[in-house]
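B., you asked whether I could sanity-check this one before it goes into the benchmark set. Here's the sequence:
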Amino acid sequence: MGKSRMRIMGSILKGLLCAVALTLLLMVGVAALALGLRVSDGMLTALNQVMKLLSILLGVTVAVGRGGRRGFLTGMTVAMLYMTLGYGCYVALGGNAFVATQMLGEILIGAALGALAGAVLSNLPVPQRGRTT
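And here's what the prediction gave me:
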């Protein structure tokens, strides 16, 4: 494999790990909120969706960065891996109340969000750093 492909795979892995780390951190916060307050199932579902959204956005931001290359594909890949890993863990931990088409739909929505975020990020100008001469 060329250096370019290895660099892209490394950035995807870094983005995926950041997305997972943010999810775990937010899950602790939501668990504390659920213990302290009466949180309805609908509110937990909404918070779960917000956690996924924020985690995908962070992961894509880390993987692509401003002015990055291949933002569309990199963003889509990070998001699809994140969503697939999440559902894989859910099923492995005994989650049996799911609909396959709903899971596929959420994975595809996540992929679209990641692709869009990656495309936007890759088209933003790279911030200029102050030059010292």
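One thing to flag: DSSP finds four helices and no strands in the chain. Otherwise nothing jumped out at me.
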